[in-house]
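Researcher: Before we compare anything, I want clean individual predictions. No alignment, no superposition, just each chain on its own. First chain goes here; please echo the sequence and then give the structure tokens.
Model: Echoing the first chain and its structure:
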Amino acid sequence: MACPGRLVGGKGWEVFVDMATELICTRGFEQFAVQILGYGPDFDAMRARIRSRGIAKSVRVYGHADVQTIRSALHDSVLVSRSRLPKGFQITLLEAAAAGAQIVSFPVPKVHYLSSDGCPSVKFLI
């Protein structure tokens, strides 16, 4: 499960960490690999939340990452587009689809185009 993007309030990194915690600690996916790529003002708070939830051994935090690292992390993974605040179409969704990732997203503006155009891997969070 991969989460690329800027770590700022309102962009949903908290939702992502809590979702990972649910899968790892409650649902028994102890070997689940979680990747967080990006940096921002909430970086330290994000790391603290990971530690406080007890999932640090399952989470790889990259910080700033180059294009190849992001592409590798997305390949055959699940991109969780955790933001509820995008202003337009998120290019990360196209990058994820091109890398062979499945996509899980809130029903934000424009994401329905991927699903309606036949992208087989788009699922929606409610």
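Researcher: Okay. Second chain, same rules.
Model: Second chain and its structure:
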Amino acid sequence: MTDDLSPSGVADAVASDLLADGDIDVTSWTDLEHLPREMDALAAQYAEIFGYARTWVCQRAGFEPSPVCLLRPLAELMDVLTSVLGTVERVGRDHWDDLHDGVVATTADLRTVDAWVADVLPVVA
């Protein structure tokens, strides 16, 4: 089987990949303009997941219904789990924020270089 390497064949392959995998694909520099907004949406989802875990998963009350409950010792582990989740969330968010800032800075740099190149190159009529 041969691959279609014509411009329309390549465009069709790229389009089908964009639709099939659900990933955020950057296919041109202008796509970088919108990437920080997409990253902010993912960061909000990340925060919601950790908020849910702290609120509902790390509840001590479920392990302390009475003084004789056999699961009562697990209540103390919920405090440890809350602390671990906080650390994981903070470290992950710090890395995500660094990546976000890098995308914003790179986008600005590319815009500057594009403007510089457009100013230096002669205009073709």
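Researcher: What stands out in the second chain?
Model: DSSP finds three helices and no strands in the chain. Additionally, The radius of gyration is 25 Å.
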